[in-house]
Amino acid sequence: MRLYSSPMKEFAISERLRNLLCRSTRVTVLTGAGVSAESGVPTFRSPDGLWAKFKPEELATFDAFHRNPQLVWEWYNYRRRLMGEVLPNPGHRALAEWEKYFVDFALVTQNVDGLHRQAGSVQVYELHGNIQKNKCVDCGKPGEVPDVFDPENLPCCECGGMLRPDVVWFGELLPESVIEKAWAKTEACELFFSIGTSSVVQPAASLPLVAQRQGAYMVEINPEETPLSGVADEVFRGLSGDILPRITEYFNDE
Ligand code: OAD
After folding, report:
1. In this structure, what CATH number is given to the domain that contains residue 218?
2. Which residues, in sequence order, are CB contacts of 22 under 8 Å at separation 6+?
3. pTM over 0.90
4. Which residue of 72, 74, 96, 164 pairs with 120 in a disulfide if CB–CB is 3.0 to 4.6 A?
5. pLDDT 10s digits, 9-24
C-alpha cells in the first residue's frame, strides 16, 4: 500500500494510478461527510462532529420520530437550513469533472446534502436519501413541507399520513434500487475511490472491499486513518478539496 500525505510541496501519485486514470473507463467513487466538511457541513464522528453532541437514537431512528416528531423535525429543519446555506467546494467540483472524463462513472454518496448535484454531478446514487426531500410514513409518496414550520401542526401527506424527511435512519433499509445500482457499479469498476468516509457504516463500508475483490484498484482519500486504510492499494492522507483537483491534473497525462 502506498501512502501520501498532504499538504505536499510535490504532489505525486503512483505510476499504477497514473496509468489507470488515463486508461480506465469504469470508475466508481464513494463519498462520505468529509467531502462536504470544507463546505462547512459538520461530519458525524470527528471529535466536534454531530454524534459527539447529539444522540442518534433520539434523532435519527423511526422510533425517535414516533416518540417525538417535533424534536426530530426541529433537528432536520436545523440541518436543512445549514445545508441550504453552504456551497460545493473544489472536491465536489472535481468529481463533477470526473463524470465528464470517464466513460462509465458512478458517484455513490452517503451524504444527504445534495452538494454533488449542486456542483454539476448527474450520475449520483444517494444511499442515505436527500435531506431536502420528504416522504409520507404511510403511503411513501413525496410531499411538500411549508416554509414556515409550525411544531403544533406537523406536515401531513394528502393521504393523512405524517410526512418525514426522506433520509435513511438507523435500523432502516437503504432504498433498494439505489443500493442495487451502486453495488453493480462497484462490482464492475476498474478503479474505486473511497473519499471522506470513516468506513464504519454498512453497507457503504463494504463497497470498497467489494470493488477490490473484483479486481479494482482501490484508493482512499482521508486526512485520518480509517479501518480501510490498511487494505487500500493507495492512500492520500489529506483533504478531498485539496487532493481531488490535484488528481484531476493527471488525466490524459501519459
Ligand atoms: P463520518 O463523520 O463518520 O466520517 C467522516 C470522515 O471524513 C472521517 O473519516 C474524517 O477523517 C474525514 N474527513 C474530514 N474532513 C475531511 C476532508 N476535508 N476531506 C476528506 N475527508 C475528511 O461520516 P461518514 O463516514 O459519511 O448516516 O458517516 C457515514 C454515515 O454515518 C452517514 O451517512 C450518516 C452517519 O450516521 C446516516 O445518517 C444514515
Report:
1. 3.40.50.1220
2. 250, 251, 252, 253, 254
3. yes
4. 96
5. 578 899 999 999 999 9
pLDDT tens, residue by residue, 70-99: 999 999 999 999 999 999 999 999 999 999
Q: How far apart are CA 194 and CA 221, in angstroms?
A: 6
Q: For ligand 1, pick from 198, 207, 244, 246 the residue to mutate: most ligand atoms within 8 Å of CB.
A: 198
* Nearest alpha carbon, ligand 1 atom 7: 34
Centre of ligand 1 from the C-alpha of residue 71, in Å: 24
Residue 243 and residue 145 share a domain: no
Any atom of ligand 1 within 6 Å of the Cβ of 226: yes
Choose the residue to mutate in 31, 39, 44 for probing ligand 1, maximizing ligand atoms within 8 Å of C-beta.
Answer: 44
Q: 196 in a domain, yes or no?
A: yes
**CA-to-CA distance for 43 and 222, rounded, in angstroms?**
13
| Distance of CA 198 from the midpoint of ligand 1 (Å) | 5
Question: Which residue range is the domain that position 109 belongs to?
Answer: 2-40+88-128+174-248
d(CA 55, CA 57): 5
